[in-house]
Amino acid sequence: MDWTRWLLSCCVIFGVLQKNVHTEDLPPPCASDIYCTGDIIHHVQLAKIFNDDKHFVDMGLVSSPAETISKFQDLLKNPPVDRNKIIEFVNTSFTQPGAEFEEWNPADWHKSPQFLNHITDSQLRSWAADLHDLWKSLGRKISQNVKNQPDRHSQIYVPNPVIVPGGRFREFYYWDSYWVINGLLLSEMYDTARGMIENFLYMVDSYGFIPNGGRVYYLNRSQPPFLTLMMESYMAARNNETFLRNNINILEKEYNFWMTKRSISVEQNGKNYTLNRYYVPAGGPRPESYSKDYELAETLTPDAKQLLYSELKAAAESGWDFSSRWFYGSTNSLLDTKTNEVIPADLNAILCRVERLMAKFYNDLGMPDKASTFSSALDKRLEAVQAVLWDETLGIWLDYYINDARRNQNFYPTNLAPLWASCYTDTAVVEKAVSYLEKSKALSYQNGLPTSLKDSGEQWDFPNAWPPLQHIVIEGLEKSQSKKAKEIAFSLAQKWVKVNYDAYKKYKAMFEKYDVEGDGKPGGGGEYEVQLGFGWTNGVIMQLLDLYRSRLTSSAISTSFSGIAFILPIFLITFWV
After folding, report:
1. pTM, two decimal places
2. Is there a smaller number of Cβ atoms within 10 Å at the N or the C end of the chain?
């Protein structure tokens, strides 16, 4: 399949969709008649054989797709096709999830990376050693069977081993891997880290972009574009100019995907600016959540169904699946998801860093013309971010609603992402952003920054706190020149390390998210139970332990800044009800 041509056709069709013309012909989630569309996935997922729809689409085929489809068609010819018959069909036609992996032990893992020696607190140092050890349990190598018979698997073959997040997530995920790679580099697992970057370069080379995760049903959407930042981390650790030179064109290819497929022009004060959004022109339910999407949209018109499916996928592309951040409408629920209409502060901050890095990389490689191109792109984005996203009244950057030409004034940690990305030219915005954070209710919680201040029941909302958001805010505050910002950064780091450490002591596990209230139990809400493992959680904690190596403590009962004491009581941690 010519992926670029296919995606372009999707975008053309989606342009029609936005003009409220019929959307029945919107392309399906992917080309597989088993894992993405067709009778099999429809009947199996609606039969709800498994507690999690993802279980089914992660299973491998015993026979060829054609044979499997023919077998199911024969079943449909002999009604009634009840749940027991579907269960028998699945049990005899599919292998269990995880069968596509082979045993792998990372050769570059060793017991005592240097960063452990720098951690002053002995209990935190011992914990960091445990996290370092977890890379072995989260490592996966995809078997040659997937390479040789790709049509029998939803897993996308990549040449190098990967670190998976954990739990139900049995494949690589794009933005998760940024924090995983940073953790691997601290663990001195340079070959594993480079191998994961090479896998992503392979994805861009093959598909023109990096999918959400390593499954065919993710081949219509990406995730926040961290590949160039991964290269930055690797170069800081290894300074391998040859590796950079050999792959700089692929980094640019991914950037071009975001600028041609995910950009939009916005008028502000009589001037047009180009910024970026999450935008997935594909219809049909998400295969990994098929029954939930199908039932959610069941009462809608055909056009409205396809539009909602597209919006849900765009939310998944953001990594925030799901959140009231994307709601816009009367029901204030998933039915009102309008991700395509939002220009997110964090996506544009990430691309701001990408443009600055690409200019630097091309300068380092002695390619001044290319460097100038990206410097110019950076200048334009700096101007656009300030003109469109900056809110002078609140003193912070905000998401922007395209159709309403207004900003979303709700609190999200990502409002501070431009600070983390140094995506500003006037340093006065730093103190304003710090003041905004101090005035918000977000700092009042003892277990970290909440993802929002709205309790919607979705997992990317209150009371959940997520590792990447903590790190983006902490790193942004810490690298500023503001003393107050640095004090807040350390306070947040101490809170986050403490809640993770206490949960680890109780459960002997790391979780994907935590509750900002009470005793710091693992987070909840959303489409599935909280998962443990957990790739980016481990990477963020390792980075914080390294950054504040001599200051963080396992027994801290308080931290303070601006004369205000923030008490961190130590409770016995009880699991969520």
Report:
1. 0.92
2. C
d(CA 417, CA 423): 8
512 is catalytic: yes
Give the orientation angle of helix 176-186 with respect to helix 190-207, to 10 degrees: 150
Query: In the chain, what's the furthest Cα-to-Cα distance?
Result: 75
Among 52-61, 227-236, 549-558, the minimum mean pLDDT is found in 549-558
Q: What is the pLDDT of residue 27?
A: 75
Indicate the DSSP class of residue 287.
G
Angle between helix 368-384 and 345-364 (nearest 10): 160
Tell me: the pLDDT tens digits for 321-349?
999 999 998 889 999 999 999 999 999 99
- Cα separation values, 29 from 37, 40, 465, Å: 7, 15, 30
**Dist CA 535 CA 459 (whole Å):** 18
Phi, psi torsion values for 142, nearest 5 degrees: -75, 135
CA distances in angstroms from 479 to 144, 421, 476, 486, 489, listed in the order given: 44, 10, 6, 8, 9
- The answer to whether residue 383 scores a pLDDT higher than 50 is yes
Rounded to 5 degrees, φ, ψ at 515 are -90, 130
**What is the SS3 assignment for 461?**
coil
pLDDT over 50 (residue 294): yes
Q: 556: pLDDT confidence band, cut at 50, 70 and 90?
A: low
C-alpha triplet 187, 556, 433: angle, nearest 5°: 80
Radius of gyration of the chain (CA): 23
Burial class (CB in 10 A: 0-12, 13-18, 19+), 77: exposed
SS3 559: strand
Distance CA 3, CA 27 (A): 12
The one catalytic residue among 100, 399, 512, 546: 512
Q: Above 60 in pLDDT, residue 569?
A: no
CA angle 273, 279, 282 (to 5 degrees): 150
Structure tokens, 314: 């765009």
Find the length of the chain: 577
- In this structure, the dihedral spanned by the alpha carbons of residues 542, 544, 228 and 188, taken in order and rounded to 10 degrees, is -30
pLDDT at 87 over 90: yes
**From the candidates 58, 252, 321, 478, which is the catalytic residue?**
321
Residue 337: count other Cβ atoms within 10 Å of its Cβ.
28
Cα-Cα-Cα-Cα dihedral sign, residues 316, 319, 322, 324:
negative
Q: How confident is the model at residue 576 (pLDDT cuts 50, 70, 90)?
A: very low
Tokens 């991914």 correspond to 254
| 400 sits in which H/E element | strand 400-401
The answer to whether 321 is a known catalytic residue is: yes
